[in-house]
Amino acid sequence: MKSNVLKIARLPDMLTERLYADYQVVEGSESGTELGPAAADILVLVANGESRVSRELIGRLPALDVIVVFGVGYDGVDVAAAHERGIAVTHTPDVLTDDVADFAMTLMLGIARRVTLADRFVREGAWAHGSFPFTRKVSGARLGIVGLGRIGAAIARRAEGFDMQIAYCGRRPHPVDYPYFASVRELAATVDFLVVSASGGADTRHLIDTAVLDALGPEGILINVGRGSVVDEAALAKALAEKRLLGAALDVFENEPHVHPGLLELDNVLLTPHMASATWATRRAMSDLVMANLQAYFAGQPLPSLVPESRDGGLGSKV
Ligand code: 8YV
């Protein structure tokens, strides 16, 4: 008999098909209220990086042993509630780092050089009537990175290729040569581009607020490939509308898939639908890692990609 796996998030077809082939998949929601008696037999819950896995949902699943997240971010998972029950949490780090860093550079170049507006300019026939306005130079500019983890460090490596002057802020300094700022506002005041690659959660909520945006200033550009919750979206829309900030490029939003209506009206902002890790190769690698965690669990082997808290808590082997 196939084991029961609860799927509460939208996942790529290539992964969903493999889950259905190997397990008895129960499709559920983040509330879990619809599960009924099926809840009793769920051993593994599969979520994605945006999913909310609350204490209440965990409480509805008495046999739950592992929460498998398709994504590196797991700020929506109540890890403390999981650990109280000895439930391990896994995610998909490393395999998506290159894509997210590539996309941060894409957004930075895209907004600075006004690529989407230039495309529209050509398509709408405006070229015949004049020249496209000059844009902002990226090479050699000053770049501030908020969160120098795996993805932030990969962005820095790419930015070095653009001769950018790099500085960063985060929870603690890293053993790197880039200047460290304990205050994000002070970092913002010294750079041209501020890239957010920090994880979400209570610690970073609205870290980028009006004061930080004003420190970045009317020549500054904000990029966010971390989590939407890190940026106060209403404050950002206001700063952009009032031209207190030159531009912004966002792949993540506070209330996905909804975007602050103020942002939709502006042309000094570039908006993409949380797609930084969405290449075929990376989504395949993320899917493989999700399957590897499930297979290891059901084979009684150590879980390959535990979140740091589960690893430190000794929840690596669910044998
Ligand atoms: C999403 C992400 O998980 O890895 C993360 O933390 O934000 C993304 O890769 C992905 O969109 C799946 O929903």
From TrEMBL:
Keywords linked to the UniProt accession: NAD, NADP, Oxidoreductase
Residue ranges of the TM segments: none
Gene Ontology cellular component list: cytosol
Xref: Gene3D superfamilies: NAD(P)-binding Rossmann-like Domain
Coiled-coil segments on the chain, per record: none
Domain annotation D-isomer specific 2-hydroxyacid dehydrogenase NAD-binding: ranges: 105-276
InterPro entries in the record: D-isomer_2-hydroxyacid_DH, D-isomer_2_OHA_DH_cat_dom, D-isomer_DH_NAD-bd, NAD(P)-bd_dom_sf
Domain of life assignment: Bacteria
Domain called D-isomer specific 2-hydroxyacid dehydrogenase catalytic: residue spans: 20-307
An MF annotation (GO) of this entry: hydroxypyruvate reductase [NAD(P)H] activity
Family: Belongs to the D-isomer specific 2-hydroxyacid dehydrogenase family.
Name of the molecule in the record: Lactate dehydrogenase-like 2-hydroxyacid dehydrogenase
